[in-house]
Each structure stands twice: as C-alpha cells, then as structure tokens.
Design goal:
The chain contains three helices and four strands, in the order βαβαβαβ. It is an alpha/beta fold and 114 residues long.
C-alpha cells in the first residue's frame, strides 16, 4: 500500500516574529517538503489570531507557487461566502505548472439560520 505525505501549514508566527518572517518560514517548509518528495502543502485560512499569519490563503499560495516547482499546493477550508468565483479562479490560474487545489467551506453561524 502506498500513500502520499502532505503538510497542513497554518503559517505559525512567534509573538516576536513579523508576519513576513512567518511567511518566509512557510516558504522554507514548502521547499523542504518539495525536496523530501512530499505531495502537497495545504495552507489553512485563519483570522483574528496573532500567532497565525495566513488570513488570506490565496496570497500565501501565490507566494509559495513563486518559490516551488513541483509541489502541489492547496488552500484548506476557504470560506467561500467571503470570495467571489472570479477571485478564486485567479488563484487557480496563478502558475501553469502548479497544481492548486481549493477546499471550499460554506459556513453559517447557527443564529444566522432562518
């Protein structure tokens, strides 16, 4: 039986680090994963957390795509109600040689339900 290894990167940021340093760490992790033969690097969407630097995974994906060659990239849990279809399609067409996957989530708060 074979399986593929993937990374789920939340772009962690130490309190003394800048977001730029956290993103540079994510690039270093993606490059290391690519060299080690990992299949995919998923970036998670998180908001309002001082220790995570990935509130906008489509921007992180573009950054990672510019610094990797063969690694499949993905955005996990993109909250689709915050994005237009056009916005998501731009991410998918970033790099012809990149394979970018997007996991969409439609989420509503319980008190918003009719």
């Amino acid at each position: 039986m074979s399986f593929r290894l993937c990374i789920l990167d939340k772009c962690p940021r130490q309190l003394e680090e800048t977001s730029q340093q956290a993103l540079q760490n994510s690039v270093a992790l993606a490059r290391l994963a690519e060299q080690a033969g990992y299949y995919c690097d998923w970036v998670a969407e998180h908001h309002n957390s001082p220790t995570l630097a990935s509130p906008s995974p489509e921007i992180v994906l573009v950054w990672l795509a510019a610094h990797t060659k063969t690694l499949r990239l993905g955005a996990g849990g993109v909250m689709s109600q915050h994005y237009s279809p056009y916005s998501l399609s731009r991410v998918i067409t970033v790099r012809a040689s990149a394979v970018i996957s997007i996991s969409l989530v439609y989420w509503r708060r319980v008190w918003d339900l009719p």
